[in-house]
Amino acid sequence: MIAIICATWDEIERNSRSLRITDRCISDELQYLKGRINGKLFLMGCTGIGIRKARKGTSYLIQKFRPDLIISAGYGGGLKPGLRVGDIVLGEWVLSLEKGEKKKLYSKIPNLKTAYLNGGLLTENRFIYDPIDKKNLFLKTGALSVDMETWGIVEAADQYGAPVIAVRSISDVNQDKLPDMGRIYDGSGKLNQKKAFQYFIDNPSKFYPFIKLMFIDLKKSSYSLDNFLNCLIKTI
Predict the structure, then answer these.
(1) Is residue 169 a contact partner of residue 87, using CB atoms and an 8 Å limit?
(2) What value does the mean pLDDT take over residues 163-177?
C-alpha cells in the first residue's frame, strides 16, 4: 500500500477523485480515504496544517495501515530565486532549523517522465510570507522550498522504517509579498472570516496578493501537483 499524506484536501483534490474508495474516515483530527487507483492500493490522508498534526496523523495512519511507501505531497513556498508557481520540487532531504537536523528523503525514482527539480526542503512551524525572510532562509539553508508538514511526516515514518517521497508544488515565489496566513487561517486550513476581515482592514495592501494566491497561484500549483502525482503513481 502507498500512502499519500497532505495537509488539506485542496492539495490533492483531483487525485482523491480518481480513487475507487473502499474505506473512509472523516473527523476533526484526521481524514483519510482508502481505495484503488489503476488497481494499486492507496491511502490518502489529510492531517491538517503544521508539524505536530502531520506527525500525529502520519503515526496513526502507519500504525493502522502499515504502508510500504509514504508520499508527502502539497504546496510549498519558493525560497530559491527563479522558481515559478507550479514548479515541482522532489525533495532530496528535509531540514528542521529548530532541531538542527537534516533527514534524507527517497528521491531516486527511475523512469519518471515529467519535469521536476531535485533539492532540499525546509520545514518551519510558521507561514513564511515575507520576501526578506525567504531570501535569508535560502541563503542559510540552500533549501529550494519551505512547507509546514514534511518534517513531521518524516519523523513519524522514521519510527517505523517507512520510506518517504516528498513532493512540493511551488505556490508562491521568493519575491511575493503575502499576507500572514497564520493570522487568518486555523490549523485545519479553514479561513477564519472574522480574523480575515479585520486583518485586511488593518492591512489593505495585502488583499490583492491574497486574492491572486487563492484564485490564480494555488489553482496552478494544485494542477501541477496533480499532474506530477499522476505520473509518479504510474511509475512506482
Answers:
(1) yes
(2) 97
Residue 28's pLDDT is: 64
C-alpha cell at 168: 512540493
Q: Distance between CA 91 and CA 107 in Å, rounded?
A: 6
Distance of CA 132 to the CA centre of its chain: 22
CATH number of the domain within which 135 lies = 3.40.50.1580
- Residue 223 to residue 11: CA distance in whole angstroms: 9
Taking residues 110-115, report their average pLDDT: 92
pLDDT at 21 exceeding the cut of 70: yes
Kind of pairing between the strands at 145-147 and 101-104: unpaired
Amino acid making up residue 74:
G
Provide mean pLDDT across the span 205-222.
Answer: 96
The model carries a pTM of 0.94
Half-sphere exposure (Cβ direction) of 5: Cα atoms closer than 13 Å: 36
Greatest alpha-carbon span in the chain: 52
Q: Give the domain extent around 33.
A: 2-235
Cell 508539524, residue? 51
> Distance (Å, rounded) from C-alpha 46 to C-alpha 187?
12
- The tally of domains found in the chain comes to 1
